[in-house]
Amino acid sequence: MVHVRKIAMEDAEAYLQLCRQLDEETSFMLYEPGERETTVPEERARLASMFGRDNQTAFVAEVDGRIVGHIQAMGGHVRRNRRTVYLVIGILQAYTGQGIGTALFRAVEAWARTVGVHRLELTVMTHNEAAIGLYRKMGFQIEGTARETLFVDGRYVDEYWMAKLLA
C-alpha cells in the first residue's frame, strides 16, 4: 500500500537516491544518468531552503517504507508569480500504473489550495504518453508546445507546457 507524505529533512539521502535511480531508469527526467552531482549535504540545504518558503514543498510516496516516487512544487519568488507553482514528478518504473501519481497529485493540489496557489504548471516531453494521460486525468491542459527544448538520446525533443488553474 502506498503512503504519501510531505518530505522531511531525514529523507535527504533516500530522496537523492530516488532521483538518481530515476535518472538511470528513464529518459523522461531532466538529468541524464550520472549527471546529478548533488551531495547529501547539498540536498539537505536545498530542502531547508524549500522548507523556508510557504509556496514550495515536496511529497514522497512510500511503499513498504521505501521512497518510490515524489512530486516537487516550486513557487515563484516574487509577488507577481508566487501563486504559480511549477511541478516535477517522478515514480520508479516498477511502481508506475499503481495510482501513485494520482495520489501525489492529490496531495500537492490539496497543499496548494491551503497556501493560496492559483496555478499549477509543468512541462512534459510530447512523446511521454503515459505522463500526459495522467496529467490530463488530473485536470491539466496543454497550453502550448515548446519546440526542441531538450536534447535526448541524440535528438531534439519538444515539450508541452501544461497547467491547471485552481479555483
Automatic annotation (TrEMBL):
It holds the Pfam family Acetyltransf_1. Residues 2-167 form the N-acetyltransferase domain. Transmembrane segments: none annotated. SUPFAM superfamilies: Acyl-CoA N-acyltransferases (Nat). PROSITE patterns: GNAT (PS51186). CDD domains: NAT_SF. Coiled coil: none annotated. One of its GO terms (molecular function) is acyltransferase activity, transferring groups other than amino-acyl groups. This is GNAT family N-acetyltransferase. It comes from Alicyclobacillus acidoterrestris (strain ATCC 49025 / DSM 3922 / CIP 106132 / NCIMB 13137 / GD3B). The lineage of its organism: Bacteria, Bacillati, Bacillota, Bacilli, Bacillales.
